[in-house]
Amino acid sequence: MTDIDDWELVTEVTEYDTPWYEGGYDRLRQPDGSEKRYYWADLPPAVVVVARVDADVLEADGDGDRLLFVEQYRPTIREIHLELPAGIVEDGESYTTAAARELEEETGFRPSSTALLQEYAVATGVLRHDRGVVYAEGLEPGERELDSNEFLEVRTVPVAEALERAREQPANDSTLTALLLAKEEGLL
Predict the structure, then answer these.
(1) How far apart are CA 172 and CA 83, in angstroms?
(2) Which listed residue, 48, 49, 65, 188, has the most CB atoms within 10 A of its CB?
(3) Measuring CA to CA, which residue among 65, 101, 66 is closest to residue 86?
(4) DSSP three-state, residue 4
(5) Any residues with CB less than 8 A from the CB of 31 and at least 6 apart, and which?
(6) Residues contacting residue 64 through CB under 8 Å, at least 6 positions apart
(7) Burial 9-30 (b: 16+ CB within 10 A, else e)
(8) 59 pLDDT band (50/70/90 cuts)?
């Protein structure tokens, strides 16, 4: 078994810096003494929100509680995705604070309670990026305030259908992971 002390950082090189992330590589001395470059992208932490809205808030007729989703075009992969609300955690924010802010900005709903379900590292082979999954409930109307690059349509999906709907193509990792965690916690 390899020990962390068997790996030596020779140099860290940042090759590019964008408003969204930095990218570069670490040159490491491996346990066998050879050296190799390991490429990475460093992104700020993000949060994904599983937001349950009561049927009476939506004034839905017998449809039951629903989860809030956003539908948006993703230029990187040139597809429209149905996703859970999500966003970057700003400096000094907790995951739950960021979740409440992002949820209101993207959907116009403000939660009365939030709970962190999980924090985890994403795509550890290439990314330096942590993500938190937050469950939000007790939603009340708030004020929607989209960023200049957000063109989102708010959608709702019955709780019982949310995971099945999220598995339809095109599917994405953050929505699937968050819904599976919420289901495991007995929240769906």
Answers:
(1) 7
(2) 49
(3) 101
(4) helix
(5) 2, 6, 7
(6) 55, 158, 159, 160
(7) eeeeeeeeeeeeeebbeeebee
(8) low
